[in-house]
Amino acid sequence: MTSDPDSGNQSRHIGLFGATGVGVGAIVGGGILALAGVSFATAGPSAIIAFALNGVIGLLTALSFAEMASKFPESGGTYTFSRKVLSVESAFTVGWVVWFASIVAAVLYALGFAHFGLIFLQELAALAGWDLPWMHQAWLVPALAIATTVTLAISLMLKTGGGGNAANVGKVVVFGVVILGGLWAMTRQSGGDTSAAFRPFFAGGLSGLIQAMGYSFIALQGFDLIAAVGGEVKQPEKNIPRAMILSLVIALLIYMPLLSVIVAVGTTDGQSIASAAAEDPEGIVAIAARNFLGPTGYWLVIVAAVLSMFTALQANLFAASRIALAMSRDRTLPNAISRLSKGKNIPTISVIVTSALVCVLVLALPDVSAAGAASSLIFLVTFAIAHWLSVLVRQRSEASPPPFLSPWYPAVPIVGGLSCIGLAIFQGIAVPQAGLIAVIWLSLGGLLFLTLFARSARLRDVSSVASNPELSRLRGNTPLVLVPIANPQNADAMIALAETLVPAAVGRVLLQNIVVAPHDWDPQQDPEPTERSHAVQRELIHASVRQGVRAETLTTVAASPMEEIARVARLHRCESVLLGLSEIAEEGVATPIEGLLSRLDTDVVVLRAPKNWHLVEQQRILVPVAGRGGHDYLLTRLLGSLARNQNCEVKFIRVVPTNTSAADLKRAKKELDRLAYDNFGGRCEREVVSHDDAIAAVVERADESGLVILGVQRIGPRQKLFGRFTRQIAGQTKCPVIVISRRG
């Protein structure tokens, strides 16, 4: 038996403190140090209101995130939410851009850490009286950024945490000291009256306030990274929502008083905060701290900046690697990325790939500021998507609502989503290059998906839906399987298989009973068709009750049963049609079912089973394959559905001639491994059989199995469903056979 490469699970080792640390590490410090200046220059003192309003939008967004994270406590964040609710193509698009946004954010924080780290070292050298001209070389910043990224990557590969809690505590303490120093300075200045520094409060007017919101919202981004590592959080239903709210509250408790003291006592006499920020927007926080605390204040801000950039880099690396891990498990990125290290279950390859991309972008990005704006734009768009997804999840999860429900629904997702869209539009207008970069990255992702990942990703998605039928409901689908039954002896087996394909909780099983009678039929003169139909209908009801399936029944009158089945399938837009067959005719003899196939545009499943056969009793399933057929999606769906309801053992076999060369035999084994992995995740046996009679080889192994699944393709309206191979297998074994044919 071969193990499933996806079976490794990460342990839940991050508690509330650690999860909050991920959010605080990403939010606090870096954003306000980089964006406070441009906000003050645009809006004047009212930039404080801009940050407060952004805090409200952030809290609304965190509530929507928290609701979905409690419902889907897995790593991946917005990507995981999209995968549960949207198509695999849409989920890939979201995951691809969010991964990029987190990587670019990591690039910015790596460069920021290098920049402030060098300032710190240069100031120390100046205090010591050392003249070190090499410290002013331009190459030092990217070199230090790459070295720091590599160091953190090694750290993330050696330990399971990711919050950087020691550094977090350090920077919070430093910011606390700066704020207390500012409050002390306020009490000493003009008897504590600093109101003049706040006039005019709305220096930039309403437009300036809105612009400041657009520039600074990304300073509160980071709470979403907690959802991105949700698969490693203990008691996620409670800890993820709490950590998100706590991290935002901690950030606002630091930001609001810090911004207030900067306005009150951070400028020289006669200078407004707007003019001071316009002169040096990037250094306004450090300059303000030096104004009210002297050189000590300046040093404290530099230390806070170094710690903030470090923790933000660590949090974004940690979260981005988990987004890549989730995408890889869904086969929307190479499978190797999902491999976990032995013992600690750390996604080592994912960390390496993510960190390598950060290092490459540090050197390759020609316009780092435009890339940062693109990152902000992407985050805002995905936040809006998250609000929309939370509405869909709430509407489609009435039977199993999320453990955490955000208050004030639906105002929270509506107001939050519209606010994020508005800020995203502003970002796109303010920095047009941001949209261009996002489009280029999205185009590259679309090309890679279609050429490398599409088939495997779609098969994995089909398997996921089959294994977890709730996904159909979350995506707004109510699949319908049509089951025409003429022989009551097959009713139990047919209904059980239909329920396996489409559980009643997410779809519908429609049992069709056809009264076969000529067009000029007179029920009074010929009651036999009616009586036969009543007997079948009664047995269908009894069989449904025995199987515990709430099936619907439909009785129609028709002269041609096959034409009637096709008509009903079209009328009700059935996803699949399940047909029963007592025997598959010998070669050369056409069957009515084969004529029906030319009229159906649905998936078709044909069951040939003995009387009183029960699906639940069968555990060994044999799947003969000759290569990649057009029925892969239906096969994956069927195997996933069967595995959901029973502990089945699946075996894929491929028969090759005895004179097959060693190279071709090796290639056949590799192709069979790939096919088994695509169709059943690799959780099965695989065997390549050297035999000159493929039918005899399959029959021999079929006699040891409880069920054989054969896939056939519908090539055209005149193509027979049951070719020589299918007919011979069915004729030489009494083993139950399921023949599947995917819609044309």
From TrEMBL:
Residues 619-740 form the UspA domain. It is a multi-pass membrane protein. Keywords: Membrane, Transmembrane, Transmembrane helix. It is found in: Membrane. Gene3D superfamilies: 3.40.50.12370, Amino acid/polyamine transporter I. GO terms for cellular component: membrane. Its main location: membrane. InterPro entries: AA-permease/SLC12A_dom, APC_superfamily, UspA. Residues 23-434 form the Amino acid permease/ SLC12A domain. Pfam families: AA_permease (PF00324), Usp (PF00582). It comes from the Bacteria. The chain crosses the membrane at residues 16-41, 47-70, 91-118, 138-157, 169-186, 206-231, 243-265, 298-325, 346-365, 371-393, 405-429, 435-454. One of its GO terms (biological process) is transmembrane transport. This is Serine/threonine exchanger SteT. It comes from Rubripirellula tenax.
